[in-house]
Amino acid sequence: MGKIAFVFPGQGSQKVGMGKATAEQFAVAKETFDAADAALGESLSTLCFEGPEEDLKLTANTQPAVLTNSVALLRVLDVTPDVAAGHSLGEYSAHVCAGTIGFEDAVRLVRARGRLMQDAVPVGEGAMAAILKLEDAQVEQLCEQTDGIVEPVNYNSPGQVVIAGEAAAVAAVGEKVKDLKGRAMPLPVSAPFHCQMMKPAEEGLAPVLREIAFSAPSLPVYCNVDAIAVADGDAARDALIRQVSRPVRWTASVRKMVDDGVSLFVEIGAGAALKGMIKRIDKSVPTVNLRGPEDLDAVREAIATARG
């Protein structure tokens, strides 16, 4: 019998209307959105359900919105996985799933995280781009050979590495990629996440995280920075601090989970970005999506099948 992994998406998965049908059909989902509203002292639920999109896309709003939508879906599903992981921001959802941190604490934490990350670099000074069709080592070498700050920051899947840093340096790497038959796709983001330019955000978030009670996770949570499972609250907190200015090692995390016996991935949240990444990392392991009430039956069936 294989293990079930719940995986949670990060920033970029948000869309206006997410969570609306779930909250209308399930009391536990409505209670989750209500709790987020109370924790922030404003109507995050209205922003999720109705927009406007420009406000939902602001990092300080996106992060609690994505987390709340994922946790609402998780509570409706009401199944305990064997392991969990999240992509960047999604790691907070994974820790709520594992009981490492309380939901309301997580909502307030990611609101602070979003503000700190947005404020770390003035708009326009940083940039991010997805580099496609190149090996990880090629992308690393191009960054090393380019003047200015530019680093690989998301190892999403074979042939897809996101870079971040100073806008000019990111653009320069994008030009060099063409010579190697690769492709650079600029990303519509407001800051260069997970690179050394985020160090001020990391330093600002550390004391906020240290004020929050962290419990030992009730199940293994694979952290982005080390691509291994954290087993206690202090390790979980430390990994979330280091995550802010260091790469998301998603490819390695997925491979480690498969090596550790995962035979089904369930992506919980809006969109299907992680499903696509996981397919490119390992085609042999099935992945299903829980995006709303319409997916519940298929997800429950897949879990029942995987558990035999």
Rough outline: globular
The SS-based structural class is alpha/beta
Please give the order of strands in the largest beta sheet: 8-7-2-1-9-10
| Structure summary, number of beta strands | 10
User: What's the overall average pLDDT, rounded?
Assistant: 97
Alpha-carbon Rg, integer: 18 Å
**Approximately what portion of the residues adopt beta-strand conformation?**
15-25%
- The percent of residues in helical segments reads 40-55%
**Major beta sheet, specifics?**
6 strands, mixed
Helical stretch tally: 14
Spans of at least 5 consecutive residues whose pLDDT stays below 50 are none
Order of helices and strands: EHHHHHEHHEHEEHEHEEHHEHEH
Rounded to the nearest angstrom, the distance between the terminal CA atoms is: 6 Å
Oligomeric state, counting identical vs distinct chains: single chain
Ordered list of secondary-structure elements with their pairings:
Blueprint: E1 3-8, H1 20-25, H2 27-40, H3 44-50, H4 53-56, H5 59-77, E2 83-86, H6 90-97, H7 103-120, E3 126-132, H8 136-144, E4 150-157, E5 160-166, H9 167-179, E6 183-186, H10 199-210, E7 221-222, E8 229-230, H11 233-243, H12 250-259, E9 262-268, H13 273-281, E10 287-290, H14 296-306
Parallel strand pairs: 1-2, 1-9, 2-7, 9-10
Antiparallel strand pairs: 3-5, 3-6, 4-5, 7-8
